[in-house]
Amino acid sequence: AQTVTQSQPEMSVQEAETVTLSCTYDTSESDYYLFWYKQPPSRQMILVIRQEAYKQQNATENRFSVNFQKAAKSFSLKISDSQLGDAAMYFCAYRSPYPVSGGGADGLTFGKGTHLIIQP
Amino acid sequence: DAGVTQSPTHLIKTRGQHVTLRCSPISGHKSVSWYQQVLGQGPQFIFQYYEKEERGRGNFPDRFSARQFPNYSSELNVNALLLGDSALYLCASSHTWNSPLHFGNGTRLTVT
How many helices (H) and strands (E) does chain B have? Predict the structure, then answer.
Protein backbone atom coordinates (compact mmCIF):
# COMPACT_ATOMS: atom_id res chain seq x y z
CA ALA A 1 0.00 0.00 0.00
CA GLN A 2 1.13 3.49 -0.74
CA THR A 3 1.87 5.93 2.08
CA VAL A 4 2.27 9.69 2.06
CA THR A 5 4.17 11.51 4.80
CA GLN A 6 4.10 15.22 5.58
CA SER A 7 6.62 15.84 8.33
CA GLN A 8 5.71 19.47 9.03
CA PRO A 9 2.48 19.77 11.05
CA GLU A 10 2.68 23.56 10.89
CA MET A 11 4.64 26.17 8.95
CA SER A 12 4.67 29.94 9.31
CA VAL A 13 5.85 32.50 6.74
CA GLN A 14 5.82 36.26 6.41
CA GLU A 15 3.55 37.73 3.75
CA ALA A 16 5.39 38.10 0.39
CA GLU A 17 8.05 35.56 1.40
CA THR A 18 8.60 32.07 -0.03
CA VAL A 19 7.77 28.86 1.81
CA THR A 20 8.36 25.20 0.97
CA LEU A 21 6.15 22.37 2.21
CA SER A 22 7.62 18.87 2.30
CA CYS A 23 6.09 15.58 1.22
CA THR A 24 7.54 12.10 0.83
CA TYR A 25 5.77 8.98 -0.35
CA ASP A 26 6.34 5.29 -0.62
CA THR A 27 5.27 3.20 -3.60
CA SER A 28 6.42 0.27 -5.70
CA GLU A 29 4.75 1.64 -8.83
CA SER A 30 6.72 3.43 -11.53
CA ASP A 31 3.83 5.49 -12.86
CA TYR A 32 1.50 7.54 -10.68
CA TYR A 33 0.07 11.00 -10.02
CA LEU A 34 0.95 13.36 -7.20
CA PHE A 35 -1.16 16.29 -6.01
CA TRP A 36 -1.17 19.19 -3.60
CA TYR A 37 -4.57 20.19 -2.27
CA LYS A 38 -5.44 23.24 -0.18
CA GLN A 39 -8.21 23.13 2.45
CA PRO A 40 -9.21 26.54 3.84
CA PRO A 41 -11.62 26.87 6.79
CA SER A 42 -14.49 26.58 4.28
CA ARG A 43 -13.56 22.84 4.26
CA GLN A 44 -13.52 22.50 0.47
CA MET A 45 -10.46 20.70 -0.89
CA ILE A 46 -9.02 22.76 -3.74
CA LEU A 47 -6.52 21.33 -6.22
CA VAL A 48 -3.36 23.44 -6.22
CA ILE A 49 -1.08 21.50 -8.54
CA ARG A 50 -0.70 18.09 -10.17
CA GLN A 51 2.35 16.14 -11.31
CA GLU A 52 2.53 13.01 -13.47
CA ALA A 53 5.43 10.79 -12.43
CA TYR A 54 6.50 10.10 -16.03
CA LYS A 55 7.07 13.82 -16.62
CA GLN A 56 10.52 14.97 -15.55
CA GLN A 57 9.62 18.64 -15.74
CA ASN A 58 8.34 20.08 -12.48
CA ALA A 59 4.76 21.39 -12.60
CA THR A 60 4.08 25.08 -12.00
CA GLU A 61 0.88 27.05 -11.52
CA ASN A 62 1.48 30.78 -11.14
CA ARG A 63 3.05 31.27 -7.65
CA PHE A 64 2.97 27.53 -6.92
CA SER A 65 5.65 25.11 -8.09
CA VAL A 66 6.84 21.66 -7.11
CA ASN A 67 10.21 20.00 -6.73
CA PHE A 68 9.60 16.41 -7.83
CA GLN A 69 12.46 14.02 -7.02
CA LYS A 70 11.29 10.60 -8.24
CA ALA A 71 14.30 8.61 -7.06
CA ALA A 72 14.04 10.13 -3.59
CA LYS A 73 10.22 9.84 -3.64
CA SER A 74 9.95 13.47 -2.64
CA PHE A 75 7.36 16.01 -3.79
CA SER A 76 7.68 19.44 -2.16
CA LEU A 77 5.50 22.48 -2.82
CA LYS A 78 6.99 25.96 -3.09
CA ILE A 79 4.75 28.97 -2.64
CA SER A 80 6.30 32.23 -3.80
CA ASP A 81 5.16 35.73 -2.79
CA SER A 82 2.92 34.30 -0.04
CA GLN A 83 -0.45 35.99 0.34
CA LEU A 84 -2.87 36.05 3.27
CA GLY A 85 -5.31 33.99 1.18
CA ASP A 86 -2.77 31.16 1.05
CA ALA A 87 -3.37 30.39 4.73
CA ALA A 88 -4.90 26.91 4.91
CA MET A 89 -4.19 23.23 5.48
CA TYR A 90 -2.15 21.78 2.63
CA PHE A 91 -2.37 18.09 1.81
CA CYS A 92 -0.07 16.05 -0.39
CA ALA A 93 -1.78 13.14 -2.16
CA TYR A 94 -0.86 10.13 -4.31
CA ARG A 95 -2.91 8.28 -6.88
CA SER A 96 -2.23 5.19 -8.95
CA PRO A 97 -3.15 5.64 -12.62
CA TYR A 98 -4.44 2.10 -12.86
CA PRO A 99 -7.89 0.84 -11.83
CA VAL A 100 -7.89 -1.77 -9.12
CA SER A 101 -10.69 -4.30 -9.15
CA GLY A 102 -12.21 -6.04 -6.20
CA GLY A 103 -11.21 -4.65 -2.84
CA GLY A 104 -8.48 -2.36 -4.11
CA ALA A 105 -8.69 1.40 -3.81
CA ASP A 106 -8.62 3.73 -6.76
CA GLY A 107 -8.74 6.76 -4.55
CA LEU A 108 -6.26 9.34 -3.44
CA THR A 109 -3.95 8.56 -0.52
CA PHE A 110 -3.46 11.73 1.52
CA GLY A 111 -0.83 12.81 4.01
CA LYS A 112 -1.81 14.25 7.38
CA GLY A 113 -1.43 17.81 6.20
CA THR A 114 0.57 20.94 6.96
CA HIS A 115 -1.09 23.97 8.52
CA LEU A 116 0.29 27.05 6.75
CA ILE A 117 0.13 30.34 8.63
CA ILE A 118 0.78 33.62 6.82
CA GLN A 119 2.08 36.41 9.06
CA PRO A 120 1.05 39.91 7.85
CA ASP B 1 -21.73 26.07 -13.38
CA ALA B 2 -22.55 24.78 -9.92
CA GLY B 3 -19.83 22.90 -8.10
CA VAL B 4 -20.20 19.67 -6.18
CA THR B 5 -23.07 20.03 -3.73
CA GLN B 6 -23.48 17.98 -0.56
CA SER B 7 -26.36 17.74 1.85
CA PRO B 8 -26.88 18.16 4.68
CA THR B 9 -24.12 20.51 5.81
CA HIS B 10 -24.20 19.33 9.40
CA LEU B 11 -25.78 16.32 11.04
CA ILE B 12 -26.00 14.99 14.60
CA LYS B 13 -26.87 11.33 15.17
CA THR B 14 -26.91 8.91 18.07
CA ARG B 15 -24.86 5.73 18.29
CA GLY B 16 -26.58 2.82 16.56
CA GLN B 17 -28.55 5.01 14.18
CA HIS B 18 -28.33 5.07 10.42
CA VAL B 19 -27.36 8.07 8.26
CA THR B 20 -27.62 8.94 4.57
CA LEU B 21 -25.42 11.61 3.01
CA ARG B 22 -26.10 12.99 -0.45
CA CYS B 23 -23.91 14.38 -3.22
CA SER B 24 -24.65 16.00 -6.57
CA PRO B 25 -21.68 16.07 -8.96
CA ILE B 26 -20.69 18.82 -11.33
CA SER B 27 -22.79 18.66 -14.49
CA GLY B 28 -21.17 16.28 -16.98
CA HIS B 29 -19.14 14.44 -14.37
CA LYS B 30 -19.79 10.70 -14.30
CA SER B 31 -17.62 9.68 -11.36
CA VAL B 32 -18.26 10.30 -7.67
CA SER B 33 -15.90 9.48 -4.81
CA TRP B 34 -16.43 9.59 -1.05
CA TYR B 35 -13.81 10.39 1.59
CA GLN B 36 -13.86 10.46 5.38
CA GLN B 37 -11.78 13.14 7.12
CA VAL B 38 -11.36 12.72 10.86
CA LEU B 39 -10.34 15.89 12.72
CA GLY B 40 -6.62 16.55 12.36
CA GLN B 41 -6.10 13.94 9.63
CA GLY B 42 -6.05 13.82 5.87
CA PRO B 43 -9.08 12.41 4.03
CA GLN B 44 -9.39 8.64 3.69
CA PHE B 45 -10.87 7.03 0.61
CA ILE B 46 -14.18 5.20 1.11
CA PHE B 47 -15.71 4.55 -2.35
CA GLN B 48 -15.54 5.51 -5.98
CA TYR B 49 -18.43 5.08 -8.41
CA TYR B 50 -18.18 5.52 -12.16
CA GLU B 51 -21.08 5.10 -14.54
CA LYS B 52 -23.18 3.81 -11.63
CA GLU B 53 -20.81 0.97 -10.84
CA GLU B 54 -18.45 0.66 -7.88
CA ARG B 55 -14.88 1.10 -9.16
CA GLY B 56 -13.03 1.16 -5.89
CA ARG B 57 -13.45 0.64 -2.18
CA GLY B 58 -11.21 1.70 0.68
CA ASN B 59 -10.59 -0.09 3.94
CA PHE B 60 -13.94 0.57 5.60
CA PRO B 61 -16.35 -1.92 7.24
CA ASP B 62 -19.50 -3.20 5.57
CA ARG B 63 -21.53 -0.72 7.62
CA PHE B 64 -20.54 1.76 4.91
CA SER B 65 -22.31 1.48 1.58
CA ALA B 66 -22.99 3.77 -1.35
CA ARG B 67 -24.75 3.95 -4.66
CA GLN B 68 -24.86 6.15 -7.74
CA PHE B 69 -28.09 7.04 -9.48
CA PRO B 70 -28.84 7.42 -13.24
CA ASN B 71 -28.35 11.20 -12.94
CA TYR B 72 -24.88 10.46 -11.42
CA SER B 73 -25.78 11.79 -7.98
CA SER B 74 -24.74 9.59 -5.10
CA GLU B 75 -25.65 8.55 -1.57
CA LEU B 76 -23.37 7.34 1.19
CA ASN B 77 -25.06 5.22 3.85
CA VAL B 78 -23.63 4.33 7.23
CA ASN B 79 -25.39 1.83 9.48
CA ALA B 80 -25.01 1.18 13.21
CA LEU B 81 -23.16 4.45 13.79
CA LEU B 82 -20.19 4.48 16.16
CA LEU B 83 -18.63 7.43 17.95
CA GLY B 84 -15.60 6.96 15.70
CA ASP B 85 -17.71 7.69 12.62
CA SER B 86 -17.77 11.35 13.64
CA ALA B 87 -15.97 13.13 10.82
CA LEU B 88 -16.23 15.38 7.80
CA TYR B 89 -17.48 13.38 4.82
CA LEU B 90 -16.27 14.74 1.51
CA CYS B 91 -17.70 13.99 -1.90
CA ALA B 92 -15.71 14.58 -5.07
CA SER B 93 -16.69 14.31 -8.71
CA SER B 94 -14.67 13.93 -11.91
CA HIS B 95 -15.29 13.51 -15.64
CA THR B 96 -13.96 9.97 -15.73
CA TRP B 97 -12.63 7.56 -13.15
CA ASN B 98 -9.09 8.96 -13.33
CA SER B 99 -9.68 12.67 -14.01
CA PRO B 100 -8.79 15.32 -11.40
CA LEU B 101 -11.23 15.44 -8.49
CA HIS B 102 -13.44 18.42 -7.62
CA PHE B 103 -14.55 18.37 -3.99
CA GLY B 104 -17.66 19.62 -2.26
CA ASN B 105 -17.73 21.42 1.09
CA GLY B 106 -18.49 18.23 2.96
CA THR B 107 -21.01 17.04 5.52
CA ARG B 108 -19.98 17.32 9.17
CA LEU B 109 -21.34 14.24 10.99
CA THR B 110 -21.32 14.14 14.78
CA VAL B 111 -22.23 10.90 16.53
CA THR B 112 -23.13 11.19 20.21
Answer: 0, 11
What is the phi-psi region of residue B63: left when phi exceeds 0, alpha when psi lies from -120 to 50, beta otherwise? alpha
Q: Of A53, A90, A49, A50, nearest to A69 (Cα)?
A: A53
Mean pLDDT of B35-44: 94
- CB pair distance less than 8 Å for B100 and A111: no
Q: What residues form DSSP beta bridges with A79?
A: A19, A64
User: Is A5 within 8 Å of A23 (Cβ atoms)?
Assistant: yes
* pLDDT, tens digit (0-9, with 9 covering 90-100), for B89-98: 999 999 877 7
Residues A102-119, mean pLDDT to the nearest whole number? 82
CB pairs A-B closer than 8 Å: 68
Phi, psi of A59 (to 5 degrees): -75, 145
Chain A residues touching B59 at Cβ < 8 A? 105
Of B33, B23, B27, B19, the closest CA to residue B105 belongs to B23
What three-state secondary structure class fits A9?
coil
A113 contact residues in B (CB cutoff 8 A)? 41-42
